[in-house]
Design goal:
The protein has helices at 21-42, 49-53, 56-63, 66-89, 97-124, 137-145, 149-156, 161-164, 167-189, 191-210, 216-221, 223-242, 248-263, 266-271, 279-296, 307-317, 319-325, 327-336, 346-398. By secondary structure, it is mainly alpha-helical. The chain has one domain.
Length: 399
Amino acid sequence: MPANRPSAALAHISMDAQRTPAIDALRGCAVLCVVLLHIQIHMPQEQSLLGRILPQALFNIVFRSGYYGVIIFFVISGFLVTRSALERWGSLDAVPWRAFLLRRAARIHPCLLLLLIVLAALHGLDVPGFVIETTSLARATLAALGMHLNWLEARTGYLPAAWNVLWSLSVEEAFYLAFPLLCMLALATGERLLKLTLLLFVALGPFARVAFTDNEIWADHSYLSCLDGIAIGCLAALYSARARHVPTRLFMLCGGVLFVLVFFLRKATYGLGLTGAGLNVTALEIGSALLLIAWSRRRPSLEPPGLCLAFLRWMGVNSYEIYLTHMFPVMLLASVSCRNALAADGWCSAALSASAALAVLLSALLGSLVARYYSAPMRRWLTQLAGGLPRRRQARMRA
């Protein structure tokens, strides 16, 4: 099916859709939250120098925001995948499912397969922290490749941390498979029914988190618990592409208020009843989506970013690879750090904080190296290979 020409409403969007600096910075914040959570789990920071300085509420925000980080990832994923499809093919009803899935596979699977090979080797060598005890290696590998590791953990319990991060990838890949079906729905009925379908996922999300199950893992990690964030991201991209005028300042204000309310003012969120109803996550998703819309419609600043912002953008560009590989430096440093610091002296407290900072830096460096020397070349090669298959088939048909 030939792609339609992009509409005039898309003219404001750069052809390099994934490189909006503010979105990269938000992705960097999200993956940093995940890394810091795992640092806290494996190198508890309460008795570290930082832990002794920070108030308890701020300590929780810094070291216990990993789940919120993943939720932000889902919103960004839905937004960028939809926006990229609109840019590349002009409209959702023109998206060729085969080309879309091949491009997603070229992005996701090379790094995933390499990670599974390394994890299988570490399991076979009985390396502490990487040995699967709740199920078999074959079953865990099948779940990781078959998009149901989140379901497996809900049934058997958490896998080792380097495996556990793959639960969110099961949700992501389920969305990638469903996306062409949504595009077919748009082709058959128009975008109105598509938007209503996405809104249905948004409405079901809070119920899935608090009412549909008593299983704590499944409540947070089920498909319905997380697909509402991706659906909100898709709706935000559709709105951003179609709207002639976007009140960017208003969206920035409203998005910032919702983001701050859920991410930083957690007692207030709980007191308002949002947490108990599962709506705290929905509010964070909507706030993130409003920020994405505003950022996508504003011209990026030409001024060079500060060191902190540049670091976050760097992490955001390599966020997928950092997310998959960060447990290796975290576990390495956890094995040599001063973790039993209940009565820690000043040296041990400083060492804990230094270990946490080093784990962040090594995670970012490892992710960037994997992205540059493995993921990016493999993605280019697979994309070129997939693009060449139709041409070779057409050549054989002419012959």
